[in-house]
Amino acid sequence: MASNRSAERLRTLLSGIIYDEEGRAWECLISDISEVGARIKSKAEIETGAILKLKINKFNDVRRIKVMWQRESYAGLQFMVKIEKGKGPMSELFKLMERREALLSSVEKPSSTDNLMTKLDK
Q1: 53, 68 contact by CB (below 8 A)
Q2: CA 65, CA 21: separation in Å to the nearest integer?
Q3: What is the pLDDT along the chain (122 residues), one digit of tens a residue?
Q4: Closest by CA position to 77, among listed 105, 108, 42, 112
Q5: Distance (Å, whole) CA 54 – CA 64
Q6: Cβ neighbours of residue 91 under 8 Å, at least 6 residues apart?
Q7: Is 78 exposed, middle or buried (0-12, 13-18, 19+ CB in 10 A)?
Q8: Were both Cys, which of 12, 77, 88, 116 would link to 110 (CB 3.0–4.6 Å)?
């Protein structure tokens, strides 16, 4: 199945806050993020198509978002302005995540349990 994503998402566990235009706020957990959007888990009362704000707490970054989909307590968000990987506080997140991905992909994976046991015996 082909992906409709325009950018690769990075898995993360960041806290955030969703704000609506009436000033209501809900805590959320950002489970993955890209330059163009994010997936969150929240008890926020939001609807598909809503224009809201998302604050990414760790980076004190506030972005206008559009809710692209919503299922149960999860929602897919599109950033109204793309995150520039090389600028601002969010650039550090992408640098860290890319380094983590590179480290994980460089770890040797044993081809079988026997192979793993052999390596552990050495």
Answers
A1: no
A2: 12
A3: 344 555 677 788 999 999 999 999 999 999 999 889 999 999 988 899 999 999 999 989 999 999 999 999 999 999 999 888 777 777 777 777 777 778 888 876 555 555 544 445 55
A4: 42
A5: 6
A6: 84, 85
A7: middle
A8: 116
